[in-house]
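Input record (one chain):
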Amino acid sequence: MSAGELFELIMPAAYVASALLSTWVLASARKRFSLPASLGFALATLFLPVVIFPLYLAVIIWRKAHEPPQRWRYLLPLLYLTIALLAIGLYVYFGTRR
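The corresponding structure, as predicted from the sequence alone:
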């Protein structure tokens, strides 16, 4: 197996891991930041997880939660995860069709 074949085999798993990590960041950031800032962190983590996730962890060390837990706290992250996984699935599907 060549390195290129191994890379093509691992990339869908890396995309899914990035989507899961991004969803966790969105669920966590909603307690500490406004909705636009939370979505910004989540999207940035989706596209650059190795860079943004450590920065996010450093930010949450110094910043405490400023809002009480919301009633539908996990509804938006689950919707976000569904859309992200659907987009990744379509990207991989159409990218591997020849």
